[in-house]
Specification:
By secondary structure, the protein is of the alpha+beta class. The chain contains four helices and six strands; from the N terminus they run E-E-H-H-H-H-E-E-E-E. The protein has a six-stranded antiparallel β-sheet, with helices on one face. The longest helix is centred in the middle third of the chain and has 18 residues. The relative contact order is 0.20. The N terminus is likely disordered.
């Protein structure tokens, strides 16, 4: 990811990154998942359903967030947060999430982590680029 889009000063153990969600994300996710739900694919179909543009699949949003978290852990590039991202393997985890509002494609959005002092859990948030209004997704990863 582009270094200028990185923000590492959110909190004691918070990290965030601005990512781009391309207009092809829905089609790419459909090809992998087999879920060709039309409102994720084209605005001609999403518009009659009340969406201005196609929306990213919620499971893509969660998978993208978990992939980003794993990349942080594996890269070791966040040494300031080594107490959370030090393991070089993906431990057993419990993942929970909820979705609040659609993530339109194309767009940019923030992936945000908030670690806890117990070093056993991390919150994941997908936040609008302008950081106003409700988040797209909130989740937690608890290390077992």
């Amino acid at each position: 990811a582009n270094v200028k889009n990185r923000l590492t000063d959110l909190s004691l153990t918070g990290i965030s990154e601005l990512i781009s969600v391309s207009k092809f994300t829905g089609l790419q996710y459909a090809a992998v998942s087999g879920d060709y739900n039309p409102h994720h694919l084209h605005s001609l179909i999403s518009a009659p359903l009340g969406y201005a543009r196609p929306i990213a699949h919620g499971m893509w949003t969660l998978a993208r967030s978990l992939s980003w978290l794993q990349n942080l852990r594996m890269s070791g590039r966040d040494s300031d947060h080594s107490e959370i991202f030090s393991a070089k393997t993906w431990p057993r985890v419990s993942v929970k999430c909820s979705w609040s509002k659609p993530l339109f494609m194309p767009s940019s959005t923030w992936l945000v982590t908030q670690g806890f002092r117990d070093h056993k859990s991390v919150n994941l948030t997908v936040r609008p680029k302008n950081k106003t209004g409700s988040d797209h997704m909130q989740g937690s990863v608890v290390y077992m």
